[in-house]
Structures are given as structure tokens and as C-alpha cells.
Amino acid sequence: MASTVSLCMCLMFVCLCDCVLVAVTPTKTCRSTDVRKVIWLKFLVTVNDTWDPDGCIATVLTPRLIPGKEYNKSESVRVGRCDKGPLWFNISEAGIKESHAMNVDLIFFSSVVEDASPPTCRIPWNGTYLTPKTTMANESLLPGCFVMDSREGYHMTYYWFHVIDWMFG
Q1: Is the Cα dihedral 148, 133, 59, 169 positive or negative?
Q2: Strand, helix or coil at 161?
Q3: Which residue has the higher pLDDT, 52 or 7?
Q4: Which of 34, 56, 64, 78 could form a disulfide with 82 if both were Cys (CB 3.0 to 4.6 A apart)?
Q5: 164 lies in which domain range?
Q6: What is the number of domains present in the chain?
């Protein structure tokens, strides 16, 4: 039986696979089943609530969160006085045509968003911090995503989620 083979780009970051270097190119070939299991992740979560007349922008470091935990069993995250709620995420292998190894799909069950779906976004991730590609200081080296939601169709709440720490099994 033939095994499924995919390519891992191993230039400028640590490859997540047990791979064999092919000639002198920066590309390694590995089986897609070699992607390591994520045991836990920590996130930086930032919330900017524009509905608060005094303004509310806060950032918090989450505790270690376990992927795939049921919504009602996931830990509630308090982001200053701006928002709170369970943060659920799951890890999936990236598609063949994607340039990263995995996706971190997350949902923040916000106490602020009452009349819409909870903030949801996807973080494309290689299991490492990002490598700078420019000299621009505003480029984050943390894998992350951004989403915004409207409270009652008027005030916007902005959310940033960044992977800051992790453990593979």
C-alpha cells in the first residue's frame, strides 16, 4: 500500500515532520501523518470594545488550553473588563495547496456578542514563530488572526488572537 506524501517547506522555520532532505534544496519530503500532535496552546487575546463610552482595550494571556475540548468544558477567558467567555479551538492538517502545516480554528464565545455568531477565525500555523519577511516593525512574528463583530448592528468589537506558547506530544 502506497503512503501519502506531501511537501514540507523547511526553509526559515523548523519543519514539523520527520523528513529526509532532498538533494540540496530547502524542501523536505514527509508523510502527512508525521505532523506532531498539539497537546496545548496559549493565546494572546486582545479585545477592543467600541460600545464602551470610556473605551475598552485589553490583552490577556490565556492559560494552557487543550484543543477540541467541548464548548461547555473549555476554560472561560476574561479579557480585562472588555469581554469574557470560553475559547474553543481545534487543530486540523492544512490542505495540500496551503503553505503551512496546520490550521488552528477558534471560536470565542463572547459575552459581548449577543445577537450574532461568536467571533471565529483561522490561524494558519507551522508550529513555530514566524520569520520576519520585511523590516517593517508592525509585522507580528506571532501566528494570529483578526475578526470583528457588531453589537446590535451598531458598535464594533475587534478581536485579535495570537499563538504565543505550545507543547507537542
Answers
A1: positive
A2: strand
A3: 52
A4: 56
A5: 36-168
A6: 2
Tell me what pLDDT residue 86 has.
94
Q: What is the pTM of this model?
A: 0.76
Judgement on whether residues 130 and 51 belong to the same structural domain of the protein: yes
Answer whether 150's CB lies under 8 Å from 156's CB.
yes
pLDDT cut 90: percent of the chain above it: 44
Q: What's the mean pLDDT when you consider all of the chain?
A: 78
Q: What is the CB neighbour count within 10 angstroms for residue 4?
A: 8
Residues 44, 29 within the same domain? no
Beta carbons within 8 Å of 101's beta carbon, 6+ residues apart: 8, 16, 17, 35, 93, 94, 125, 126, 127
Look up cell 499563538; give the residue: 163
Q: Tens of pLDDT along 122-137? A: 999 989 988 777 777 7
Question: 16 with 69, same domain?
Answer: no
Integer angstrom CA distances of residue 125 from 46, 101, 131: 19, 6, 12
Instruction: Name which of 22, 56, 166, 127 is nearest 6 in CA terms.
Output: 22
Is residue 13 located within the same domain as residue 42?
no
Other residues' Cβ atoms within 10 Å of the Cβ of residue 68: 10
The residue among 137, 140, 143 whose CA lies nearest residue 122 is 143
Please state, in angstroms and rounded to a whole number, the distance separating the CA atoms of residues 97 and 74: 32
